[in-house]
Design goal:
Number of helices: 14
Order of helices and strands: HEHHHEHEEEEHHEHHHHEEEEEEEHEHH
Largest sheet: 5 strands, antiparallel
Helix content: 40-55%
Strand order of the largest sheet: 1-8-9-10-11
Number of strands: 15
Structural class: alpha+beta
Shape: elongated
Length: about 375
């Protein structure tokens, strides 16, 4: 028989059969509360993405509009849609390049659109490393208005054409089309990160809403699948916790068949029979040279390679939990040691994948 007086501290409460149920639907309620707290992060992130879309031309970066003329270029720029696709004809190489960190970033070309000369910066691959003339090409470009490099290009181009700079400037459009600014590494990474993280945030919100409405389908409950029917085990754990919990701390509970955690860090359920190894470790909390407190983390290693961590608990609470679990299942290894680590390694056959790889390689050799 378990000696409760010996193993329970003042923070751990054993329950008698006469104790009225106080934990009705406590697990599902904790799951709902957990995801209600977490749902604010993806919502805030989506609002941040919308703010970025208002500051930067994100929409045109993701889905560039089709440009057909110089007037459509000017309209797109004024509407904060400075990225687009355009088909250019009869481009002529100016003889100038743009460099970045010693490498050629693009080649300057010019073409005529609506009686105006338009400067175009083409990617080295698109221009075939500075092909003198390009009859027809469709590019994805960013619209730049009076970029910093424009005066220097016009000055040198005027010298080559024996024109005055003022005369050439009047014939050249203020808008420059830059392919590297639309297809370079930075815009590609930005668009990829924007789309992927945005979709992840949307999926997170949808899944969190689903888990709030149907806690039985949450990740915490689905993780019970290797041990049996997750929904039946949840129902059984709820009944045991609400009718006759064996032991309870602030956020850890033990029923007849389950260990349950319902903290702000997450919710976890595991059958006691599936626990292989339990141990604790301490964490010293300090700011600069001032030591605030020591908290303890309970670690559980279970069958099917499932691992649980219950952080920021007191030593007395964790010691009581460990003592009770050791009494409830005598096969549980208690305390961190190299011997226990090796025993769990053998039980779980952790080195089996490595042995298979080595065996395969040895056969190949």
């Amino acid at each position: 028989m378990i000696n409760f007086k010996k193993i329970f501290s003042k923070n751990i409460r054993p329950f008698e059969e006469s104790t009225p149920p106080t934990f009705d639907h406590h697990i599902t309620g904790s799951i709902k509360a957990y995801y209600k707290r977490r749902i604010y992060s993806p919502i805030f992130y989506l609002l941040l993405l919308l703010l970025l879309a208002g500051i930067f031309p994100v929409r045109s970066m993701i889905s560039p509009r089709h440009l057909t003329s110089l007037s459509s270029i000017a309209t797109a720029y004024k509407r904060h849609s400075s990225y687009g696709k355009i088909t250019l004809k009869n481009l002529y190489f100016t003889g100038y390049r743009q460099y970045w960190l010693g490498a050629t970033r693009g080649y300057y070309y010019y073409t005529v659109m609506n009686d105006k000369v338009v400067l175009v910066l083409l990617d080295p691959l698109t221009s075939e490393q500075g092909n003198p003339t390009i009859k027809n090409v469709t590019v994805r470009a960013r619209i730049l208005k009076d970029p910093a490099t424009r005066p220097l290009v016009l000055e040198r181009l005027a010298e080559d054409l024996s024109w005055t700079r003022q005369g050439l400037t009047g014939s050249v459009s203020h808008y420059t089309l830059s392919e590297p600014d639309a297809t370079g590494l930075l815009p590609r990474v930005f668009v990829l990160a924007y789309v992927v993280t945005g979709l992840f945030a949307i999926l997170s919100i949808i899944s969190y809403l689903l888990y709030i409405r149907y806690p039985a389908y949450s990740r915490q409950i689905r993780r019970l699948a290797p041990y049996g029917n997750p929904r039946k085990m949840l129902k059984e754990a709820e009944e045991e916790l609400s009718t006759l919990p064996q032991l309870a701390t602030e956020d850890m509970f033990i029923t007849q068949h389950y260990f349950i955690e319902t903290s702000t860090y997450g919710v976890a359920i595991v059958p006691i029979r599936e626990i292989l190894w339990i141990y604790k470790y301490s964490t010293l909390h300090k700011l600069f040279w001032h030591h605030f407190a020591i908290s303890y983390t309970l670690c559980l290693t279970c069958n099917k390679h499932r691992y649980l961590r219950c952080p920021k608990n007191t030593k007395s609470n964790i010691d009581g939990i460990m003592d009770y679990l050791a009494e409830a299942n005598h096969d549980i290894l208690v305390g961190f040691s190299e011997e226990n680590r090796r025993k769990v390694e053998v039980i779980q056959n952790d080195l089996l994948p490595l042995r298979k790889i080595l065996a395969f390689l040895s056969r190949r050799v």
